[in-house]
Design brief:
The chain has twelve helices and nine strands. With 310 residues, the chain is α/β, with parallel strands linked by helices. The protein has two domains: 137 residues, Rossmann fold (3-Layer(aba) Sandwich); 152 residues, 3-Layer(aba) Sandwich (Rossmann fold). A five-stranded parallel sheet has the order 7-6-5-8-9. A four-stranded parallel sheet has the order 2-1-3-4, with helices on both faces. The radius of gyration is 19 Å and the shape is globular. The chain starts with 11 loop residues before the first helix and ends in a 7-residue tail after the last helix. The structure holds phosphoric acid mono(formamide)ester (CP). Phosphoric acid mono(formamide)ester binds next to α3.
Length: 310
Amino acid sequence: LNHFLTVEGLPYQLLHDIMDRAEQFVTLPAKQQKKAPLLRGKTVMNLFFENSTRTRVTFEIAAQRLGADVINLDIRTSSTAKGETLLDTVRNLEAMNADMFVVRHEHAGTAQFIARYSAPHISVLNAGDGRHAHPTQAMLDMFTIRQKKGAFEPLKVAIVGDVLHSRVARSQIHALTTLLTGEVRVIGPKTLIPAHIERMGVKVFHNLDEGLRDVDVVIMLRLQRERMAGALLPSEREFAKLYGLNEQRLELTKPDSIVMHPGPINRGVEIDTEVADGVRSVILEQVTNGIAVRMAVMAMIMGGNTGSAA
Ligand code: CP
């Protein structure tokens, strides 16, 4: 039991344990943070088969602060381009004494696949697989909400936009429905909300103004065009008009609401610049919190107490 592949099914207390551990890294003075050598002598390999800025860099910083050696495999110049299979790549990296793989891939289930077929001492962390899951993103989002709002239980949280193609939304919904007794709303056009999503314990709105009313937290999502091949979709201009968050619409939420976005943002599409850079935005704090949360997950895996989360 040494992987972190999904938040689905993780118990309430474990989610809080991860956040408590992250809190320790946040409150630790920077100098000491860099010297918490829980991963000294370990080799962490970042295998990003899909593009990333926030996740890859914060995983790298987190691993370095824990004292690990970090290797970023450049997939574009690796032998993957010569036709080497995923499993052969993994086996060769294992032969170089890898201890942990951080995996992002366009196909759902890739991190699980690597976890299943890699050597028993290897830990695999899912850094995003297709539209399936992005568990550390969900945990840093939960950590940011806890930091800003204290208790989860009474909150109303709205997730807005392209939920259909979003691994982030799926992981957030799993975490939020475990943590809060308030209300998790998803808001978007019918074409971008998965069928039967109510079964995940959320309330669906197709009208943004109705869905935003009195919420404590608004999480905006971008249109994930890279996963939309062939789908009939609204133009960016139409989408912005119906589902873009602007200052006027933000007034419908609670006066102390916060605005979140996993990034990358598309200014003027799902979110206006005034809101993205406004006083209620915690978007860059989410990015900063990614370091502490990823440190927490890696530290707990090395301590052997996260469960498999597989
Ligand atoms: N939130 C997120 O996954 O961003 P990146 O794609 O830049 O890693």
